[in-house]
Amino acid sequence: MNDQQKTSVHLPFSDKYTDSHSQEYFQKHNEKKLSDRMEHRMAQRALALAGHPSSVLDLPCGTGRFWSMLAQDPKRELLAADYSEAMLEVARKTRDPALVGRFRLLQCSAFEITLPDDSVDCIFSIRLMHHIGESSNRVAMLREFHRVSRDTVVLSLWVNGNYKAWRRRKLEAARRQRGEKSDNRFIVPRAQFEQECRQAGFEVVGHVDFLPRLFMWRAYVLRKKSI
């Protein structure tokens, strides 16, 4: 995609990651031991499905929650990026210096990644796409991933067709009746998202569910096709 085709997108939720919120984010996920292990297992299976890529961009990297897992391959080239400089700073301070040293850190948006075309084998994007409510914005982000990845993308989002999604729909309906605002987290129908992936130039290699038929989290593995 050339510069004229790019559409700059800024979503308000991304501004909430201040210094204090970033520290709270680190503490919250550092305490969720069981769910964290399960999410790491889901991500590991997705990376295996992607062919154990030799170079990975973790975006958004947050406070480096997946860095130890990504660095298990000593030969893997590692990059990490986040829109929030505060998140990157918390990662620098809380993670082992030897681990931090494995990563090239970038501050940028997922809609405008400050890397050339075909920079990495795989873009690893966990806990971002479920914040993107508009189809056009999801496609714009996927197209930017297509530009920067040489081969694959691993990403997670909330999908329908499970018990938690049914519960979430009921909660959203009640929230709308009370006149409350959205919390900027969205369920995307599986068929719709897979069509958006194809629209952006990917084929769906497969997926890994957090807990099938129960939880909303699904990690997709996408492979780049030529546009």
How many strands appear in the DSSP assignment? 8
Instruction: Write down the CATH topology.
Output: Rossmann fold
CATH superfamily: Vaccinia Virus protein VP39
Compute the CA-based radius of gyration: 17 Å
What spatial form do the alpha-carbon principal axes imply?
A: globular
Distance from first to last alpha carbon: 9 Å
Supply the CATH architecture: 3-Layer(aba) Sandwich
CATH class: Alpha Beta
Low-confidence stretches: 1-7
Main beta-sheet annotation: 8 strands, mixed
Estimate the helix proportion, in percent. 25-40%
Strand content: 15-25%
Total individual domains: 1
DSSP helical segment count? 8
Mean pLDDT: 88
Give, in order, the helices and strands.
Answer: HHEHEHHEEHEHEHEE
Helix-strand category: alpha/beta
Domain Methyltransferase: 56-150
Protein name: Methyltransferase domain-containing protein
GO molecular function: methyltransferase activity
Keywords: Methyltransferase, Transferase
Can you characterise this structure?
The chain is an alpha/beta fold and 227 residues long. It has a single domain (12-224), classed as Vaccinia Virus protein VP39 (Rossmann fold, 3-Layer(aba) Sandwich). Helix content is 38%, strand content 22%. It has eight helices and eight strands, in the order H-H-E-H-E-H-H-E-E-H-E-H-E-H-E-E. It has helices spanning 19-31, 33-49, 67-70, 85-94, 97-100, 135-148, 163-177, 190-199; strands at 55-58, 77-82, 103-107, 120-125, 149-159, 187-188, 202-209, 217-224. Strands 1, 2, 3, 4, 5, 6, 7 and 8 form an eight-stranded mixed sheet that branches. Helix 1 (19-31) crosses helix 4 (85-94) and helix 6 crosses helix 8. It is globular. Mean pLDDT is 88; it is low at 1-7. Residues 56-150 form the Methyltransferase domain. InterPro entries: Methyltransf_25 (IPR041698), SAM-dependent_MTases_sf (IPR029063). It comes from Candidatus Accumulibacter proximus. Pfam families: Methyltransf_25. This is Methyltransferase domain-containing protein.
